[in-house]
Amino acid sequence: AAGVIQSPRHLIKEKRETATLKCYPIPRHDTVYWYQQGPGQDPQFLISFYEKMQSDKGSIPDRFSAQQFSDYHSELNMSSLELGDSALYFCASSPGPGARNEQFFGPGTRLTVL
Amino acid sequence: SQQGEEDPQALSIQEGENATMNCSYKTSINNLQWYRQNSGRGLVHLILIRSNEREKHSGRLRVTLDTSKKSSSLLITASRAADTASYFCAAMKTSYDKVIFGPGTSLSVIP
Q1: Cα A60 from Cα A65, distance rounded (Å)
Q2: Which residues 42-81 on chain A approach chain B with CB closer than 8 angstroms?
């Protein structure tokens, strides 16, 4: 069965650079969630999209932005990277309201900021 | 504030023993989920229990939910070394809400 695809799987950046993380949800899933998991931490919700509109926002820094495109894939753009942005970034998708509650997580993108 | 909080934070058991992890949450929920994560890897969904359910089984996993106490437990029976991982409980306030994770329990199963 198709799963959530995230790219790249690993990314190394310097401080103050920018990074773009991509997420391809499971086919026919219209809702995408982004989570950040720092070293030794639990995943923290960043932002979500439903039908290409932002549906919820968590502890996402102003330096980060995200969007969901017409094919439902989503991109998380991160600018002016800081050392503290080093983390595992997960994307999850779900069929959306009224459907199953389960969110299907991608394998994550490991971002290292040097 | 976190919706889910877990105890113990770390658990070490011998292979074959049962492992029990507990989770408490603060507000009303639609469902509670348990995830597993091997060191630095992806999150694997284990089981979901809805707020109107009290117990659910999946293989060697048994999850209970007590909405009056706002708590849940995950029992892994006959543990194996391969069960070594971090286990997170995660709550959803509505069926389409974000998932709010607890701090996780690090389980070590010693062969």
Answers
A1: 8
A2: 42-45, 48, 50, 55-56, 58
